[in-house]
Each structure stands twice: as structure tokens, then as C-alpha cells.
Amino acid sequence: MPTAARLLIYGALVLLLGGASPCLFAKPRVAQLDPAKSKVGQAIYLEGILGSGAPLAAARTGAEPVTGEQAACVNCHRRSGLGSQEARSSFPPITGQFLFHPLTGGAELPYIPGARLKRQPYTDITLARAIREGVGCRRAADQLLMPRFALDDADMSALIAHLRSLDRNKVPGVSMSELHFATIITPTRIR
Fold first, then answer.
1. What's the Cα-to-Cα distance from 92 to each of 64, 76, 86, 172, 175, rounded to whole Å?
2. pTM of the predicted structure, to 2 decimals
């Protein structure tokens, strides 16, 4: 009897006698969505669109109010949430890792320019106050560059959930189901 036929008969006997390995019945692993991710929070952060579909509104002292895409967090803090610098202005990282880290001086966090590591960690309540009123953990006014955002409790919870889901170890644009590429086109002529 050929080997393939023997293996087939052996497998059938194992199944019939109930001694089948659990691996034979295991379902294939499927990538799970991060339960902390919030589609509403992501829309607020990236596009400036509230859960209701209305545009996000933000105001700064001495500046014109901005709405919608112009008010989106991504404009200053980047898609990754790791912040940015522009001239003398510094926009700190706002990933959950940086916002909610324990007060240890930040030795376990990577160096990122503009990170404010020697402050009390935010809670959901103090972060909501900072976003709405520009008041930091110590009740001191934050930078003048940070707009004050008009968010109700549901939108605020969604935004905070999104900030908690941002992680420096996750590459933006890469997931178990998607891979986004950037293309750079230069004005050079091909001969």
C-alpha cells in the first residue's frame, strides 16, 4: 500500500476514534482589531469630523477660530501622534504612552523633541480639561499654540480612546489588512 494511502487511512481512524489533535479543528488566526481604537476618535484626530458628522471647532486666543480639517489634531501632532517642530514651536507627542506615563522622568520613553516628561501623567479628566480649556495637569495654562476644542463628552471619550491607541511601535499606514504607500514624484525629466 502506498504511503499516501496509509496516511489517509491513519488520519481517518484517528478522527473516528476521537483522538484527533485539536490542531486539526483549529480555526485560522484572524487579525483582531484593536478594541481601544475608536473610529469617531480617529475621524476627529485625522479629519476634524465629530461623531455627529459636524466639523470640529477650535479657538485660540488672538487667532481666528478654525473648523473641520483645519482643526484636526494631525496638523500639529502628525499621524503618528509623535508631535513635530516648526521653527521655534514644538508640538509634543500625544500618544497614550507619552500622555499617561508614570512620573519617572521618562527614562523608559524614547527621546522625542518637545516631549514633556517631567510632568504629572494625565488622567482622562485632566486630559479632557487640557483639550477643552488649555489647562495642564497642574492647572497651569498650557502653550498658547494649543487650541481649545469644543467637544462633548462622547466625542472627548472617543478622542482619548484614539490617543491611547496610538503607539510608537505601530507604524502608521500598516495593519494586518492594509498597507499604505507614499509616492514621491520629482519634477526631473526622464530621457
1. 22, 9, 11, 18, 25
2. 0.66
| 92-132 confidence digits (pLDDT tens) | 888 888 888 876 655 567 667 777 777 788 899 999 999 99
Nearest to 113 by CA among 144, 81, 82: 82
Cα dihedral 100, 102, 107, 109 in deg (nearest 10): -20
CA 65 to chain CA centroid, nearest Å: 25
Three cell numbers written together for 187: 519634477
What Cα–Cα distance (Å) separates residue 4 from each residue in 7, 10, 18, 94, 140? 5, 10, 21, 58, 76
71 half-sphere exposure, CB direction, 13 A CA radius: 24
Distance CA 176, CA 33 (A): 9
Question: Per the structure block, which three cell numbers stand in for 42?
Answer: 480617529
Question: What SS3 string covers 113-128?
Answer: CCCCCCCCCCCHHHHH
Candidates 40, 43, 38, 47; CA nearest to 72 is: 47
Q: How many C-alpha atoms does 77 have within 13 Å on its Cβ side?
A: 25
pLDDT digits (tens, 9 = 90+) for 15-57: 555 544 444 444 333 333 344 568 999 999 999 999 999 999 9
